[in-house]
Design a protein that fits this description.
Blueprint: H1 5-22, H2 27-36, E1 41-45, H3 49-58, H4 72-79, E2 85-93, E3 97-104, E4 107-113, E5 116-121, E6 126-128, E7 140-142, H5 147-159, E8 167-172, E9 178-182, E10 187-189, H6 195-207, E11 215-217, E12 225-227
Parallel strand pairs: 1-3, 7-8, 10-11
Antiparallel strand pairs: 2-3, 4-5, 5-6, 8-9, 9-10, 11-12
Length: 229
């Protein structure tokens, strides 16, 4: 993040102070000098208190570091350890405070791995469900999938005007194909190939005046099967 002109001026002002007090040998001045530019407070915004406390604890080692020589890249590496963070910005407020603004990743579904519940983040990471309050409005996702496969599938659905909030359950199969169950209990079976076209067909059927059945089966090439169960 680039420093504004005003902030650069402030930095130069404090540097001049640092140069001045560095030349003073008085004992009290030495104590003052040693403490003036140490990080005394780290302010975190953008997350709830539970996560804020966790992050603050991990950033504790940056306190009492000289703010001029504290490299933001080192702070960035520490923030990257938290897989629920999507974006962040770091700002030094001289003489002794850090401001860190965080943006959480968007949660797009829930799944289970090794019998433990995880949220799926739009940042392509699995996030322990213990990090957040229960999210009941997310689709449950079953199967051994890679997150990038899920993200690509969601992108295709959104490109074809599917409302992801209407999806209740998602199933991924070893054959690399998807089934979805909507909140109205409509099951849509997609093929493993030509997925984009199949999604278009499914959306057209849903948007048509035809009375919807229970199943739209698109697994067989050039066939559309609509049935009651």
């Amino acid at each position: 993040m680039h420093l504004s002109k005003n902030n650069k001026n402030i930095k130069y002002f404090y540097l001049l102070i640092l140069i001045f007090i560095s030349s003073v040998n008085n004992y009290n001045f030495q104590i003052f000098k040693n403490n003036l530019f140490k990080v005394s407070k780290i302010n975190i915004s953008g997350v709830e208190n539970k996560l804020k406390n966790e992050i603050n604890l991990n950033l504790e080692s940056f306190k009492n570091k000289n703010i001029f020589f504290l490299d933001k890249k080192i702070i960035s590496e520490e923030l990257k350890k938290f897989n629920y963070i999507e974006h962040y910005s770091i700002f030094k407020k001289y003489p002794s405070e850090l401001y860190i603004d965080l943006k959480l990743t968007k949660l797009i579904g829930t799944t289970f791995k090794n019998n433990k519940k995880f949220y799926v983040g739009s940042n392509k990471k699995f996030i322990s469900s213990t990090k957040f309050k229960e999210k009941s409005n997310l689709p449950n996702i079953f199967g051994d999938f890679e997150i990038i496969e899920l993200i690509n599938f969601f992108d295709l659905l959104e490109e074809n005007n599917f409302n992801l909030k209407d999806i209740k359950q998602i199933y991924f199969f070893e054959s690399k194909r998807w089934d979805i169950i909507l909140k109205n209990d409509l099951l849509i079976k997609f093929p493993s190939s030509n997925l984009d076209n199949s999604i278009k067909i499914a959306k057209n059927i849903i948007d048509s005046d035809l009375e919807l059945k229970k199943v739209i089966d698109l697994r067989v090439s050039n066939q559309v099967i609509i049935r009651d169960e």
